[in-house]
Amino acid sequence: MRQVDRYCHRSVDSSKLFGTARLKCAGKNITNLRFYLNIRCLFVVAGLAISPLLLLAAGNYLVVAIPLDSPDAIVVLSGAADYEERNLEAARLFRNGSGRRIVLTDDGVPGGWSNENERNLQFVEKASALLVDNGVPEQAIEIVPGAINDGKAIGTVVEARKILAFCRERRYSRLLLVTSAYHSRRALATFNVESREQGLETEIGIAHPPTQYGRIPHPSWIIMPGQWARAAGEYAKMFLGEGPQS
Question: I need a labelling partner for 47 at 20 to 30 A (CA). Which of 106, 194, 226, 244 fits?
Fold first, then answer.
């Protein structure tokens, strides 16, 4: 189709005119698309760079240690899956003179068959035997009577209430808690809250086994297999409350 240019009095091919405009428009769209793609790529790269740092920070926030000299008792918190590392750390502290007695709790969880005893042992029994095998005299081990549950759940809150009541009866006012690294911040906060609610003036410290891979200290413990799930569970319990077996 041809049109007449009224200013120059010459004909113009409109198909060529609009075709050129369309090409220019398409070129501009491609440029814009590349720009937005580049921006998205930058965000993805930044996210990949920052995510590991945030993950490490989230993991390290959960870990806390507060030394306490000459505690009245070293208190090992129950944890069927973690009973070995917790009790080995408690035995080490005892041998180093950090306390004169160790307090255990019974989470009521069976610990499996023992060929030596020819019966199923509870985890509290296995914990006690492990302490003795690692230099703690039997007379230095005390067990909070009864399973640490309220008939509905086993958790850190219930355990803290039972332990504090037990220690109050024995006038233990300086307690050094021992638990796993990932559990340390929540455990410390729970005991401090429960102590205040019971009107106690308990001085509480906390220790945990080293976060390590093999024998090398490993501050980035959260990226080790299975640990990120534990960290996620801790945050869920901190913000949403405890469920059974917490």
Answer: 226
Q: Which residues contact 30 (CB under 8 A, 6 or more apart)?
A: none
Of 146, 224, 126, 227, the closest CA to residue 180 belongs to 227
Q: Is 25 left (phi over 0), alpha (psi -120 to 50) or beta?
A: alpha
Burial state string for 142-164 with b = 16 or more CB within 10 A and e = fewer than 16: bebeebbbeeeebbbbbbbbbbb
What spatial distance separates the first Cα and last Cα of the chain, rounded to whole Å? Answer: 80
Mean pLDDT in runs of 10 for the chain (246 residues)?
A: 47 48 50 52 44 69 92 93 93 95 91 74 92 97 85 79 96 96 93 94 94 49 64 78 53
Find the length of the chain.
246
The CA distance from 123 to 105, in Å, is 9
Q: Model-level pTM?
A: 0.72
